[in-house]
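Email to the structure team, subject: Protein kinase domain-containing protein model.

Hi all, the expression group asked for a predicted structure before they design truncation constructs. Nothing fancy, just the C-alpha cells so they can compare against earlier work. One-line instruction: predict Protein kinase domain-containing protein, return C-alpha cells.
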Amino acid sequence: MFLKYWGFCHSKRTSSCQYTTRIEELCHHFSLADIRKSTNNFDRKRFIDLDGFGTNVYKGCLQHDDSDYTVIIKRCNKDAIGRREREWDLLKNEIELLCQLRHPNIISLIGFCNHKKEKIVVYEYTSNGSLCSHLQRGELSWKKRLEICIGVARGLHYLHAGAKRTIVHRNIHPRNILLDANMEPKLSEFNLSLQGQRFMSKPKPIIVDTVPGVLGYMAPEYIINGIVTDKTDVFSFGTVLLEVVCGRTYSDMIEEFLEKPVEENIDLEIKGKIVPECWKVFIDIMQRCVDYEAEERPTMGEVEVQLEYALSLQEQADITNIHHHYILLSKTSTNLLLNIKEQ
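Reply from the structure team: attached below.
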C-alpha cells in the first residue's frame, strides 16, 4: 500500500529535522528534495489554490515502484516570518490530529516536511474538488447530495464519538468537504480543531478567546461566549444541509429566506426530484441541527441515522415512481436568521 510505504503514522527521523515534537513520532517526514521533485520545484502549473488560511496548495506527484501517486501539498509562506509561524502552528495542530484518525470520510495525512524556512504538509489527493464547487455548478443529483451528507455525518460522528478523545472540527463548511474519485466526501481543514474530554467521560465545554469562522455556520454559544462542544459542529452541519438543498452559500440566500420558505429556494437542478416523505425527515433534522439551544440539537450519530432513513425513503419511492417527479406542499421557514439576529 502507498500509505504504508511512505510511513503513514510511522516514525522516521532525519538529520534535517531540527526539533522534537509529537508529530515526528506519528508521521512520515519528507525531505525538501522529495517535495520539490513532486511539484517540479513548486511550478506554478502545479498550483491549485490558497486554502482558507492563506497557505499555498499544490498538486504533487510522488513515485514508488514505477507508479505515480498524486497528492495534495500545502506550503506555508516562507517569506513572511510571522505569517509563516502562524500557518505552521495551525498545520501542526492538524498533523497531530490527523495522525491519530482513521476513517474513510476524513482526509488522510501522508506526511510533512520541516526544513529551515520550509513548512509543508502532504495529504491524499481528492480529484473531484470541494462540495462547494459542485453545488455552485449544480452538478449533483438529490440522491448524490444525500449520500455525501451521510458520509460527512459519519465522519463527524467518528470525530465526536469514535476516537479516544472527542474532537470538535470547528470549521465545517462545503469548501472543506472534499470529494475523491468515487465522490466519497472527506472532511479536511483540521487547523482549528480542538480535542476535548476522553470519550465516555463527562463532557465539558471548551472556552476559547477567539472565534474564527463564517457567520451562519457558527453556533450562537460559540460566537457569544466562545463555548465549543460537539454541538458546535452539529450547528455548522445544519447550515451545510441547507446549502446542499438550495445549491447556494448561506450568505447568498439571506434575502430569499426573509421572504420565501425553504421549499421555494430549492436548487432548480433538484426541484421536483425530492420525495415528500424524504423531505420531511431531511428538513426536520436540518432544523434541529440549527436549534438556538445547543442541548436541543441532535448528536451526529442521530443525524447520520435520520439522513440514512431519508435516503431509504427516496430510493423506495423512486422504484415505484418511474417519472421521479414529486411536489412538496410544505412551507418551511428556517430559524437560522433568528439565530443571527439574536447574536
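Confidence is low (pLDDT under 50) at residues 1-20. The radius of gyration is 21 Å. Ping us if the truncation boundaries need rechecking.
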